[in-house]
Amino acid sequence: MADSIVINAERREQMGKAASRRLRKKDDKVPGILYGGSDDPIPLVMDHKDLVKAMQDDSFFSQVLEVSVGKKSQQVVVRDLQRNPASEKVTHVDFLRVQADREINVSIPLRFLNEEECPGVKVDGGSISHNLTEVEISCLPANLPEFIEVDMAELEIGDSVRLSDLTVPKDVVIVALASVEEDRDVQVASVLAPRLEIEEDELEGDEEGGDEALSATDEEGSTTSDSAERGVGGDDSATDESDSD
Fold first, then answer.
1. Which CATH number is correct for 6-97, 1.25.60.10, 2.40.240.10, 3.40.50.1820, 3.90.550.10?
2. What is the pLDDT of residues 109-133, one digit of tens each?
3. Distance separating alpha carbons of residues 94 and 81, to the nearest angstrom
4. What is the rounded CA–CA span in Å between residue 176 and residue 181?
5. Between β-strands 90-97 and 29-35, what pairing exists: parallel, antiparallel or unpaired?
6. Fewer Cβ atoms within 10 Å of its own Cβ: the N or the C terminal residue of the chain?
């Protein structure tokens, strides 16, 4: 597990929406809350620039962090983070306390390996399609991996990697695969055929369909002609009935 990231925070005394707006605009602070476990929730406030700096670490959202409030430091994971949709500035963050003997559910990023070296891309000119970029796992805090690797080295056109194909550390469980529901073994990534090849297949399909239609039309035309000849040549009653209609 990576070295723990430390977030320095203070207990927030001013509560309410108006107070939070002042903290954000005037003091460039971010309000938040620390909750979970047997202790009471603690409203927090942090420097925006310090929080953004900590967020630059790739493991910020998937690792156990330390929140330091006064002289006390607690282990947490990020449970929710809100941003201003216009400026992308962080407006609020929720931290969940973790305990060493209790499993936690965390979404871990996937790290794709050998994408350019797999036969489907390097030899056949295909492309990689990512269906997932992270996966939710369950484990004790001490066993939390920083990421899960997805090796694409052997994949050819049409091949795919599913959740059940992933290699996870011991004592780590993929939440979806532990579910009793069916069809939770979803596709993680696949190798697609080159677009030109797909377009050629579609064109060939259209041409075959056109040939079949023409063949069917010719058969229908010849049938009609034969019937007409039979009507003129020998079946006077059929001609008479047609005329009478």
1. 2.40.240.10
2. 999 999 999 999 999 999 999 999 9
3. 6
4. 9
5. parallel
6. C
Contact 185, 163 (CB under 8 A): yes
Residue 98's contacts (CB-CB under 8 Å, 6 or more residues apart) are 36, 64, 75, 76, 77, 104, 141
Task: Compute the distance between CA of residue 124 and CA of residue 194 in angstroms, rounded to an integer.
Answer: 8
- What residue ranges of the chain are covered by domains with CATH 2.170.120.20? 104-196
Output the average pLDDT for the chain. Answer: 80
For 17-30, what is each residue's pLDDT tens digit?
777 776 777 677 88
70 touches 11 (CB < 8 A) = yes
Region label for 37, one of left (φ > 0), alpha (ψ between -120 and 50) or beta (otherwise):
left
